[in-house]
Amino acid sequence: MKRITMRGQTVEEAVEKALARLHVSKEAVDIVVVQQEKKPFLGLFGGQEAIVEVTISHPFHCVESFLKHVIEQMNVRVQLACQVEGERLVVFLSGRDVARVIGKHGQTLNALQLLAQGVLNRYTDRPLRVVIDAEGYRKRREETLVRLAKNMAKKAIQMGKDISLEPMSAWERKVIHTALSDDDRIQTFSAGTEPHRHVVISLKR
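The chain above was modelled as a monomer; its predicted structure follows.
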């Protein structure tokens, strides 16, 4: 866990400086007061600064704090709920403006998840993951992608040539690869560079 020691004229000031340095909210940390501030005697001597030790209680808390801040800055009416599932944090978004958070083909949602994963990686060396869903969007998108994969595979076989799909996120490409992994007539691979990386469905020669 990331831990820092900070000084200040008061305990409150030292804590605020530590939170600013860590870029987290007070709810995401454990605070130990190492030394209380002491005013100088007669305003001349004997004073001492406050010293606090601030430790991030769990990197998942940092992600939750980050997402709440981003949603607030986006000025959208969206509620956030978090659930820890082993080594991953699943974040559920819901509310009146949830479509704005999803974006076209989930682009905004994917970008938000990528940023959240970056925050998580900053505060831990463990292989933890964050998944962000919005009112079941990812499940619906997965079902759509599986249908697309099956249809395009069938088309590739009928036409006898490779078919390139539209650019997709890494998660979406993985869904396509997995959906067609058991078909011994075709193979799939990713081509291109981000943000235009896409899946190619190819006949096995």
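The longest strand covers residues 29-35.
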